[in-house]
Specification:
By secondary structure, the chain is α/β, with parallel strands linked by helices. It has two domains: 55 residues, Orthogonal Bundle (DNA polymerase, domain 1), CATH 1.10.150.530; 266 residues, Aldolase class I (TIM Barrel). It contains ten helices and twelve strands. Strand 2 and strand 3 form a beta hairpin. The termini are far apart.
Length: 350
């Protein structure tokens, strides 16, 4: 490591080794990792177990920057959307979601997105840069700060916010490993979901990590013609080789793949499309997650009517494929699936 380090993106083992290189004992690395993530300190001055001269030196050689909360919107059912400001002034959105089992957080992995899906708000502003692993991890800290008064902490993480997680592969994997660390957030690998538009080489790469995380693939169409129209990534990575990669992921991890399918009225929601989807996934241990499309003003689609969504589900289920309809949270504050964006303007807190 250089003398000036991004301490927020350093694993606990690396931190311990680095501390030793500075002339301190390794356990100071454990203390720092715990302070940053379990205790959520905002400055070295809050680490009371350290001598003053050590805190001062760390401020000089490894200063850290916490994400700043620009605004918090609270929606129905306790959903919160956080507009967070990064060190360079860029902004991202993070969503905290209540469930019967506790809270999950939907984190962003990039500033903007280059995938260009025609129904999603996140790609309206192109990718400016990748988030560091520390910036992704700090979104979990922000979420825990928001629900701290309830004496709760996040128990699940969905990489479904702004950006394509597998397009920021190394930082995303490092983030997951750091969030799993028992000295930090202590999150089970099984409580992570990585969403992807279908970057096939990285799905194969992820399958070799042998991490028991859930892979959620944004499918949204049962054939290449339609999928290429609404998801440009399909021109590079068509459905057939994508499914082969997904089956390889299942074979290597034992984790059932989830296919996300946003229903667009009159576009991909017909009975024929439902049968095509069932044909496509026949014999594959997977799950289909139907998502009633969440409106984005810049896109010309309409959500499928409730009865159409239910009929689509019935057809897929009757063909022997696990299929559920996602319970939508946060639509009233544009925090639902596909609605997150990189706001240039600040949102007003309620």
């Amino acid at each position: 490591m250089n003398d000036l380090v991004d301490i927020m993106s350093v694993s606990r083992d690396e931190m311990a080794s680095w501390m030793q290189q500075q002339g301190w004992t390794r356990y100071r690395g454990d203390q720092l990792f715990e302070s940053l993530w379990r205790h959520r300190v905002v400055s070295y001055g809050q680490i009371s177990s350290w001598p003053k001269d050590m805190r001062q030196k760390m401020e000089q050689i490894a200063p850290f920057y916490r994400l700043q909360t620009a605004a918090v919107q609270k929606g129905t059912h306790g959903t919160r959307k956080i507009l967070a400001r990064l060190r360079d002034g860029q902004q991202i959105e993070t969503v905290v979601l209540p469930h019967s089992y506790g809270y999950s957080v939907c984190v962003s992995s990039q500033v903007g997105c280059n995938m260009g899906c025609n129904f999603c708000a996140s790609g309206l502003l192109k990718r400016t840069r990748n988030l560091t692993s520390g910036e992704i991890l700090d979104q979990v800290r922000l979420a825990n700060d928001v629900i701290a008064l309830e004496q709760r902490v996040v128990s699940r993480v969905d990489l479904m916010g702004i950006g394509e997680p597998l397009d920021n592969y190394d930082n995303v994997i490092r983030f997951i490993q750091m969030a799993h660390d028992s000295h930090g957030f202590n999150l089970s690998y099984r409580h992570f979901t990585i969403s992807t538009s279908g970057l096939i080489p990285d799905i194969y790469r992820l399958s070799q990590e042998k991490l028991p995380v859930t892979l959620a693939v944004s499918l949204h169409a049962p054939n290449d013609v339609l999928r290429s129209q609404i998801m440009p990534i399909n021109k590079a990575y068509p459905i057939e080789p994508l499914l082969r990669a997904c089956k390889s992921y299942f074979d290597n991890t034992g984790r059932r793949v989830s296919f996300e399918y946003a229903l667009l009225d009159g576009v991909n929601d017909s009975n024929n499309m439902a049968h095509q989807l069932a044909d496509l996934l026949q014999g594959f241990s997977c799950h289909v997650n139907l998502i009633p499309w969440n409106p984005v003003p810049e896109h010309p689609f309409s959500p499928s009517p409730k009865k159409r969504v239910e009929e689509f589900q019935r057809i897929v289920q009757n063909r022997g494929i696990s299929c559920t309809i996602r319970k939508e949270l946060g639509q009233d504050i544009e925090a639902a699936c596909g609605q997150l964006r990189r706001h240039e303007e600040e949102l007003l807190s309620p």
